[in-house]
Amino acid sequence: MRKSLRERFTDLVRPYSRGYRLAYVLTSVSVAVLEVVSHAISTPLDMPSFLLLTALCVSLAMAPWLNRAGDLLYVGAFAAAGATSCSVSLAFPALGMFLIATVWIIHHRTPQASLLLTGYILLMLLQDGSQPSRIFSDVLLSAVTFAIAFALRNFIDGAARSRRELEESKVETAKAAAAVRAKLAAGLHDTIARDLARISISLESFVAVHPELSEEIAPVVDLARVSSRRLKPMIAEMNLEASAPSLRTAVKESTLMLRSRELNLTVHMSDDIDDLLSRQAILIGSLFVREAATNALKYARRGTSVNLFIEVAGGELSLMMVNEIGERSLNDALTGGFGLVNLQSHIEAEGGRLSFVSDSGRWIINAVIPNPGKEPLMSETIRVLLADDDVIVREGLADLLNQQDGIDVVAVAENGSEALRELSKQTVDVALLDVDMPVLDGLATAKEMARLRPSVAVVMLTVFEHEESLARSLALNVRGFLTKDIPSAQLAQLIRQAHDGYLVFGPRPTRILANSYLSFGKNDPGYDGFRERVEQLPNHLRTTFDLLIQALPNKTIARRLGLSEATVRSYISEIFAALGYTNRGELTITAIKAGY
């Protein structure tokens, strides 16, 4: 943006800094002293020369308070003095010209300084004629002025850069400290506080199996609850929301890390990936990316490409990393890492899946993570009623669910009768009911809720997954049957699915149903069913399938088949639908295990 006339005038007369002002004053005093001493030794100054010297010294001393305007005033006064006969006897005011030229060069006004010194030399030629010695001395002084000025400019510019870098370093240090505090707070929030609640729930489930140990376990449960409460003010103090997690940032960091071994990370993901994911999905996905990249850093062959596929579909985040395996791995001490086994445990605790396989000199790691998406609007928040006779389980589950995006526990009850009263007072979308409760058990409560509020999705909770209770629940047309030890992220995902009209079951109830199903011999053994579906694919889909399970990008598949990327994406969607998969990672690993 161009400056206004007023702004340019302000810049023209803004005083120089203190150091420059001191230099001008000292030079002015030096000119006066040198001139007086010089004439005291030779010819004394006459009055006109003395007055001219005084005027020039005062104008030079005052020049820095007017910035360039003051410099130009002194230059004008010096040039005007050159037209008088008195100036011939004054030798040292020329130092002011050299000082101004030096200051201009320091301020990166080198062309103006060059014109100034050229004008000075011409003025001296007009005064003294073409004397070679005078011309040589003036040119030499000008050259020395340039040398000194550029040296000072480099020094001052270097000092300024150092100050800027120091300030930037301070800012970056402050940002890093804030990021560390935010990550620590997020770790407390997303891991420790939640795990303490899980410990309470798991111990309560254990007591239900072994009531004789209740007295010994009760202090541990109380300690977990107290610790969880102590963490809350610590988390608030550390400013949990100081920075939002980003999967794209994790990818960038991993890209830089892999470059240390000349590994090129090729990423296939949407530009707005962070906008498509929940906070928890971003955190777990970022952990996968970093650990998979660490694994590639240890085992990949130097100078090769590492491919990362990130897709979002069907309420899930799918990530797959593929790299060529080198002959030797790096020392673990150099690469560190969380470890794939621990990563698998972490992902499965969130209701996700991790699988990895080595095939044809390639290492393939795939993860599928629940993704409810970004936090819904307030009008889309799922309102949950939670009924459980155990206060620890009730409070623990309520606290865990309230931490999930888009879920609000609007009421809690300690038995079925109280749950029905809360139902009459609250707007409820999903009811979580303990199967075994006093006064009115969960199954009877579910039956009454179906009569009073058929729109409410009822999900049963239990410590024991008895087949009889599961069968009775299904007979009541409840939306789901879950065990209390299910991870909170997975529970939240299942609540959303129940709210959307799906039937939901936890891992152990699902096994009961699967075993019942298998007892009738209605399932194909091993991978026969998968192979049969693959063989039934049309030729164009089978050709695409063969390239897809090689972990090739869509662009490469399109180039090999002579098709457009849009057509390849359409074929892949058809393959997913035909084979019953939603992401290429799990499909690739299943295909490899099936012998393709």
Structural features, described:
It comes from Bifidobacterium longum subsp. infantis. This is Transcriptional regulatory protein DegU. The protein has 596 residues and is an alpha/beta fold. It has 4 domains: 5-130, no CATH class; 247-370, Histidine kinase-like ATPase, C-terminal domain (Heat Shock Protein 90, 2-Layer Sandwich); 378-518, 3-Layer(aba) Sandwich (Rossmann fold); 528-593, Winged helix-like DNA-binding domain superfamily/Winged helix DNA-binding domain (Arc Repressor Mutant, subunit A). 61% of the residues lie in helices and 12% in strands. It contains 23 helices and 11 strands. The strands form 2 sheets. It has a 6-stranded parallel sheet, with helices on both faces. Helix 2 (18-41) runs antiparallel to helix 5 and helix 5 packs antiparallel against helix 6 (110-128). The chain is elongated. The two termini are 63 Å apart.
